[in-house]
């Protein structure tokens, strides 16, 4: 498969010590993996499950992977570390304190792995995101050049501290504060920071900022390095919101040792089979853009386009293990969705279908379209001028709790998208005008509501335009 926005690989050259770092981005999950090399051998940090991207990067550079390490047992994706080590013969480094059933090199605070005369990796205990979290300082001939911080120190924030349970979150927040300061104390200000999380990941305590940073820059701006412990803990805990339900399955799968990845194409579903699956209420996911979905789609399909965070929202909404059928315009779309979903452990599919809605409909009566609007249209409709659209009986906001608390349409019903399928019965009768922050989640919500025969108007617009358009708003005081 061709490299896409969610499979991006970019090079970051580090002249210090002659080392280089490849950044392997998985933007759909808000994560990064890394390959560091001296030009001959390489270490890989926190690889995603689809390790072919890493192997391709190593091949392009002509380097041999001799070590694979994890900063922690991941909760937001299935690790490819064990499989990458198996395929390359590399050592697999995991925190010594983590009990796992597979062979690995146990690493503890202060352990140094000599990768070559020119490159070393030093393990640094940085609990906070998890209890056994490790960061890894990358050292060249002249000393440290950077640090792989995993879910510890991120760009402008830190990793969240509640993934092991709310009862542990305050203790871990205190650890997180101490760990960030430990890194700041023992590493030079010029050291680069290479975090795994913080690019849209729900593993961030708060929204990260920036695309790169040095430790010195973070000393001036990162809350963990500028706030006292008590203030940091209070701010961190106050900012935490819900995280995806599939996280409950990731840690256990990684601790057990993930199975090798299988990206073979699912069985092809013909129109009659699609209709049967939709009739039984199965998850049939339309992977096209929301712009294409609203024009025409099969009744009962759920819109989760590949142009947005499909994997996060599908993994959050489904009942784990429920049958899923992927519907795309092309085999390439289906293959991309398989790869995305395999990263969170969804790798067995009921079926797949390829074609336009008109080609996949068993009869024309299956075809639907969705009425769309802007926030200006909503303002006019609330003033009694719906301009040919169904008058709004309900304004439904499907954003997260923190988003809604900060600002929302006055009188709106709030049901986060990840709860919607189980709470549709709570929505009052009448036409539902549904919105989110940009239109992506609202389109998914609209498709769920339409599947339950509700009258829906999709507000496909940026939430920031609502107040200016004249929509009455309530803001956090």
Description:
The protein is of the alpha/beta class and 477 residues long. Strand 8 and strand 9 form a beta hairpin. It is built from 16 helices and 25 strands. Mean pLDDT is 94; it is low at 1-6.
In terms of topology, how is this protein built?
Elements: E1 9-13, E2 20-26, E3 31-37, E4 41-45, H1 52-61, E5 64-69, H2 81-88, E6 91-95, E7 105-107, E8 112-116, E9 119-125, E10 134-140, E11 143-150, H3 166-186, E12 192-195, H4 215-219, H5 223-226, H6 229-239, H7 247-256, H8 271-279, E13 283-286, H9 290-295, E14 297-298, E15 302-303, H10 310-317, E16 324-328, H11 331-342, E17 351-354, H12 357-360, E18 367-368, E19 371-373, H13 375-382, E20 394-397, H14 401-406, E21 407-409, E22 413-414, H15 417-423, E23 432-435, H16 440-451, E24 456-459, E25 473-475
Parallel strand pairs: 4-5, 5-6, 6-7, 11-12, 13-15, 13-16, 16-17, 19-24, 20-22, 20-23, 23-24
Antiparallel strand pairs: 1-2, 2-3, 3-4, 8-9, 9-10, 10-11, 14-18, 21-25
Helix pairs in contact: 3-6
């Amino acid at each position: 498969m061709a490299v896409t926005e969610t499979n991006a690989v970019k090079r970051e050259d580090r002249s210090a010590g002659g080392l280089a770092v490849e950044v392997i981005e998985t933007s759909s999950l808000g994560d990064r993996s890394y390959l560091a090399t001296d030009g001959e051998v390489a270490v890989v940090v926190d690889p995603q499950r689809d390790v072919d991207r890493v192997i391709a990067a190593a091949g392009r550079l002509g380097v041999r992977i001799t070590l694979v390490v994890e900063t922690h047992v991941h909760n937001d994706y299935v690790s490819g570390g064990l499989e990458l080590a198996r395929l390359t013969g590399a050592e697999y480094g995991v925190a010594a304190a983590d009990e796992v059933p597979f062979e690995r090199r146990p690493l503890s605070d202060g352990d140094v792995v000599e990768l070559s005369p020119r490159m070393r990796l030093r393990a640094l205990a940085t609990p906070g995101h998890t209890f056994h979290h490790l960061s890894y300082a990358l050292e060249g001939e002249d000393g440290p050049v950077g640090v792989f911080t995993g879910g510890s120190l991120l760009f402008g924030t830190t990793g969240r501290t509640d993934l092991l349970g709310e009862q542990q979150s305050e203790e871990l927040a205190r650890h997180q504060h101490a760990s960030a300061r430990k890194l700041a104390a023992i590493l030079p200000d010029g050291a680069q920071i290479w975090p795994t999380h913080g690019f849209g990941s729900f593993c961030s305590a708060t929204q990260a900022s920036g695309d790169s940073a040095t430790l010195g820059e973070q000393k001036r701006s990162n809350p963990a390095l500028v706030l006292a412990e008590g203030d940091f803990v209070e701010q961190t805990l106050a900012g935490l919101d819900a995280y995806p339900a599939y996280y409950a399955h990731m840690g256990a799968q990684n601790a057990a040792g993930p199975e090798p990845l299988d990206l073979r194409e699912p069985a092809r579903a013909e129109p009659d089979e699609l209709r049967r699956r939709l009739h039984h209420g199965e998850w049939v996911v339309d992977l096209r853009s929301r712009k294409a979905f609203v024009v025409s789609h099969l009744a009962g399909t759920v819109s989760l386009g590949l142009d947005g965070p499909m994997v996060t929202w599908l993994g959050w909404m489904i009942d784990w293990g429920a049958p899923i059928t992927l519907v795309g315009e092309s085999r390439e779309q289906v293959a991309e969705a398989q790869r995305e979903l395999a990263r969170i452990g969804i790798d067995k599919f009921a079926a797949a279908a390829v074609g336009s809605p008109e080609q996949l409909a068993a009869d024309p009566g299956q075809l639907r379209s969705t009425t769309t609007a802007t926030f200006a249209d909503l303002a006019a409709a609330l003033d009694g001028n719906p301009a040919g659209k169904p008058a709004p009986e309900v304004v439904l906001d499907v954003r997260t709790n923190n988003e809604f608390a900060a600002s929302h349409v006055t009188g709106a019903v709030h049901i986060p998208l990840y709860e919607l399928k189980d709470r549709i019965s709570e929505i009052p009768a009448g036409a539902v005008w549904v919105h989110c922050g940009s239109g992506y989640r609202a389109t998914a919500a609209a498709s769920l509501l339409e599947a339950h025969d509700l009258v829906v108007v999709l507000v496909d617009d940026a939430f920031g335009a609502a107040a200016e358009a004249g929509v009455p708003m309530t803001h956090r005081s």
